[in-house]
Amino acid sequence: SAVISQKPSRDICQRGTSLTIQCQVDSQVTMMFWYRQQPGQSLTLIATANQGSEATYESGFVIDKFPISRPNLTFSTLTVSNMSPEDSSIYLCSGYGANEKLFFGSGTQLSVL
Amino acid sequence: QKEVEQNSGPLSVPEGAIASLNCTYSDRGSQSFFWYRQYSGKSPELIMFIYSNGDKEDGRFTAQLNKASQYVSLLIRDSQPSDSATYLCAVATSGGSYIPTFGRGTSLIVHP
What we know:
The complex is a heterodimer of chains A (113) and B (112). Chain A is mainly beta and 113 residues long. Chain A is built from no helices and eleven strands. The model of chain B has no long low-confidence stretch (mean pLDDT 92). The interface between A and B is medium-sized, with 23 and 23 residues.
């Protein structure tokens, strides 16, 4: 199984600031996915990040608000910009490991005051 | 719009019983099917992966896939209180994307 290290595990941020979440994978992963999970809800896909190209964003998510970096096949970052309380959520990165199994990072619990 | 449907529950079963969780999906081209267990405040943990019709067993867990009827189920035998969690069903389609779609999850409560 792939191991995805995600940090920070949690943060409390002030309105209007930005937070960058990092995910490091222990093996090369072609596609990485960033999800948001609000309390009591399922996972909502924010974007798909491929190495060497711009991320593909889902409806309702834009690059200015959630810029994504994917400099190589083992690393990706998601920035939550100009935060508001509505951005309070759990953010998760994921990627396919061997045998096409989808694994998740440990998650980042974000609270915006 | 690809959809994955799950009964939100909660599903309550006594310890030692079989818990049966169901998931239906709309995209007939779906090829990979996942079951995740998620404890409150934690990230999803992959417990089963299936891509062929039929049953796949791993310990106390059995995944059942029926592509003709577009459903995938998860059976948990000898349920334990530690199995109490939310179970997420996810479906992915090949063709270059493999972007997974998740259901809303079923809450399972195993009571002693």
